[in-house]
Amino acid sequence: MNMDITEIWEKTLLSVKNNINSSVGYNVHIKASKPISLINSVFTISVPTSISKNMVEYRYKNLIESSLEKTTGQKLSLEIVTESNIPDQKRESKKEDYLNTDTNFYSINPKYTFENFVVGSSNSVAYEAAKRSAEYPGKLDNPLFIYGNSGLGKTHLMYAIGNKVKEKYKDAKIICVPCEKFTNEYILAIREKTTDKFRSKYRSADVLLVDDVQFLEHKEAVQEEFFHTFNELFSLGKQIVLTSDRRPSELKTLTTRMKTRFGQGFTIDISLPNYETRIAILQNKALAHNVTIDEDILGYIADNIRSSIRELEGALLNVISMSEIKQCPITMEFVKNTLQSIISDDGSSKINPKSIIQKVSLYYNISENEITGTIKTKEIALPRQVAMYLCRKLLGMNDTSISKEFSKDRTTVKHNIEKIESEIKINESLNSDITYITRDLESM
């Protein structure tokens, strides 16, 4: 494909228009946007106002990125700026930029740092491991493999590593690339007979950061190439950081040797933040937008939106944007009305203890009453333990809160969750069960 950014954007807008749910949203917030640059894998557009910027980021970014991928055949990240705030360094890209395999440094968004990463019990170990990898690249926690559901901060930590290494080691060659970009580059290199240049580029990296390595699944030739790149860098003591939505053992179609390589360093998960961390995240986001919001309102949002940090921040952006559009104060009533499509009428989020118990009971073909009851047979005990574990993992609930939902004491809850946490490290079948139930919940 040989298009400049104007052509790419025109085709993308047509795709978005045909697939968007709200014609008003398209006409008000997207139609007036303009392409600014395509540098490496980052496509930058400008919009007229900060309101449009917030609305596009919250409501339409995923749709636009999907349309960009359909238009270009490449996995691109969307960056939105206001017309009055276009960075000086942004430039019109050449036609070949989005297929360029010569670039040594992929754009790492400078806003992702360790300083603005909100640390809580759900991510503190991953945070510390990431900091060590940045301070002593190739020496500790190598490779570093961070996994967890979408929207929990894996990419933030990976970018923070890149930014810190870039700051500390000025001459370090850092390559940060989405796995799909690596795949597409390799396919292009084969087609253009430039595989030697491709290998030279990646195997000369001092730090290799690869996002979403689960996309290596079902791609045997790319796995083979990545395997040899990994081995080359690892043998030279170079730092490798990988992110995924699953632990290495759950990447079913990866070769055994690839899973072994991925798991030979430090593997750590990021789970959902607890209530206190969610409050801190909302406070930081409000501060970044120079908005003061009552603590009770932040508590309402934090208590009802638990599925991901991205959704949590998106909900707050929606509230702020609607407040600007309607020129009205952010009150509790206003927030409840604004977020009614996200939070149900009774004030509960779609994923809650009740929905978890329901999904687990359906999966294991037992009743909900049996899960919360007193029967201790293995056929009932395991689903009960899984449900408790998911309440912790997906909702960030503490032992006391979980004990109330299951009518059990805190010690029992703690023991059951620890048992599942221990078992999933060695039991792939249980891992698969939990992954299936989790995805079923997230698709509600």
Strand order of the largest sheet: 5-6-7-4-8
Query: Average pLDDT value?
Result: 82
How is the biggest beta sheet arranged?
Answer: 5 strands, parallel
> How many strand elements?
8
From the alpha-carbon coordinates, what is the Rg to the nearest angstrom? Answer: 23 Å
How many separate helices?
19
* Outline type: globular
Q: What is the percentage of strand-forming residues? A: 5-15%
Low-confidence stretches: 89-105
Terminal CA distance reads: 37 Å
Measured as a percent range, the helix fraction is 40-55%
| Strand/helix succession | HHEEHEHEHEHHEHEHEHHHHHHHHHH
Structural class: alpha/beta
Q: What distinguishing features does this structure have?
A:
globular; alpha/beta; 444 residues; 19 helices; 5-stranded parallel beta sheet; 3-stranded mixed beta sheet; 9% strand
Description:
The chain is α/β, with parallel strands linked by helices and 444 residues long. It has helices spanning 5-19, 23-30, 50-72, 124-135, 154-168, 179-192, 195-203, 220-235, 256-262, 275-288, 295-304, 309-326, 332-338, 353-364, 368-372, 378-395, 399-406, 410-423, 428-442, and strands at residues 34-39, 42-47, 77-82, 144-147, 174-178, 207-211, 239-244, 266-269. The strands form two sheets. The chain has a five-stranded parallel β-sheet with strand order 5-6-7-4-8, with helices on both faces. α3 (50-72) links the parallel β2 (42-47) and β3.
